[in-house]
């Protein structure tokens, strides 16, 4: 892997159960996995998504080991783009999202009101204007999530999520260069000291 052995990187962790993003630190990168500083994912075998700035695709990873304040994950570079289907359970969420066609920036604002590994439900009175093939912009994630509308009602729509993961070739072949996140985001979020380079709002420390 072309990430230096001693590198400590800020990455995004995506929870496929809730579509929630968390910005954390990761280290110990090699071709098989890395260590992630998080206390929110404590289930061995669980599939999560890792977004490393500088690479174009998300990495699918499986939690292999639990440590005190870290997890060890193994990368899964199988060709299938799907998330492993376990016993799926819809979780109630409330996530604002921007939804548009795959080839258009014109879209509608809506709310994701439940989610699972393979799909979600949207709520908005304007969903009838959307094409079948869509992409969702989720807060905290700087990559659009591709989806397909499988059913609609006047104010709701069911969406199948089509996850697109790295097959490992980019990570093996591309020389890693830390992106200038501060420069990219500085103009957009000038004065927002509580925002990270990915646009994820940092939690303020509590006394």
UniProtKB/TrEMBL annotation:
Residues 174-207 are annotated as: Disordered. Residues 84-165 form the PilZ domain. Gene3D superfamilies: predicted glycosyltransferase like domains. It comes from the Bacteria. This is PilZ domain-containing protein. It comes from Roseibium salinum.
